Amino acid sequence: AGELSGFKDSLIFKDVSFSYGEKEILKNISLEVRKGQTVALVGPSGGGKSTLMDLIPRFHDPKFGKIMIDGHNYPDLTTESIRAQMGIVNQESLLFNDTIFNNIAFAKPDATEEEVTTAARIANAHDFIMSSENGYQTTVGDRGNKLSGGQRQRICIARAVLANPPIMLLDEATSALDTESEKLVQDALNHLMQNRTSVIIAHRLSTIQHADIIVVIDNGQVIETGSHLELIGKNGLYKKLIDMQSFTE
Questions:
Q1: What does the alpha-carbon distance between residue 164 and residue 126 come to, in Å, rounded to a whole number?
Q2: Which domains are seen in the chain, by residue range?
Q3: Tens-digit pLDDT profile for residues 62-118
């Protein structure tokens, strides 16, 4: 298989279907993510957003259809070289029982102290790290259990900033955070998405409104796509979700 050496143009899903056993989760999904775009996946829970997201770093292969990056079919590329283009920040963000410094530098083991602290500042993590007992040399505990949820997420965002991948895959389920962490994490995600290609499972109205393209997914299908204003104008499921106040501010 070939090596993908970067991301230049587009990521395309062409009539992609996916099943777990007998249960069809995604049906005939077609979508295009162009370089530099922020694409928000929205829709009722259980609709298939997470599964679609898992297909991008090739955690699963589609049952039918194909996924292409820069014109290359996924099976023609090494999975490692596909994943090397991507940074992932989600609920299950994994931290190791090691120092904060090493957790941030995980994706770039030769990172300098300056690079790590710069990434932490961008992720709104530097201040709480400096007030920890040993600063960047503080250990985070098993799975990061010495840190709050918001702190863990910001460490993971700092890790993604440092790795600096061309494509960011984000799951914005930040429900478990208090309001202050919430805002810090939100700002950090906004910094992370600037000037790069992002696909985000979005729950927040501000994120959704800033997206270049919103993809509305329900029952494993793409129901509609467009910008916030276009979709409001279509008066379909998106408009209904807005009217029902399904998204947080």
A1: 18
A2: 86-164 (3.40.50.300)
A3: 999 999 999 999 999 999 999 999 988 876 678 999 999 999 999 888 999 999 999
